[in-house]
Amino acid sequence: MTTVSLTVNGRAEVVDTDGSETLLEALRRDLLLTSVREACGIGVCGSCTVLLDGKPVSSCLFLAALADGRSVETVESLAPDGGLHPIQQAFVDHTAFQCSFCTPGFLLATKALLEENPRPSPDEVRHYLAGNLCRCGSYTQIEAAVLDAAERLGG
Asked: C or N: which end of the chain has fewer Cβ atoms within 10 Å?
């Protein structure tokens, strides 16, 4: 077993891993962060997206041991006070979800996009979020929500 020290949603955390455990598994099992979801298990759907040092990664492919000393954000970090973050509110206002299974990954990818590019074009939104799949087909609403969130955040 390997002990991994990391910062998750602004809090210092320690998890023990056998070396083959993914970050997704550690976040869900050890830290009970169930917004991180596995759908495909091979890094192509985006449901397991987390921000690792501010960059989106597929946590189903990333070994937990490699997160030692790093910062991880899950969707729980967006609104720690219980309210909605402007990105979340934009998704609600544009009904940018149906089943919501993919929504945490889209929210975190949107956060990363808007931190890199506060004023993305529709084409840039589509390109950046191409690694996140919505089985319900809410893409036009998601795009509208991302562009609205950019405005809400002053982009």
From this structure: N
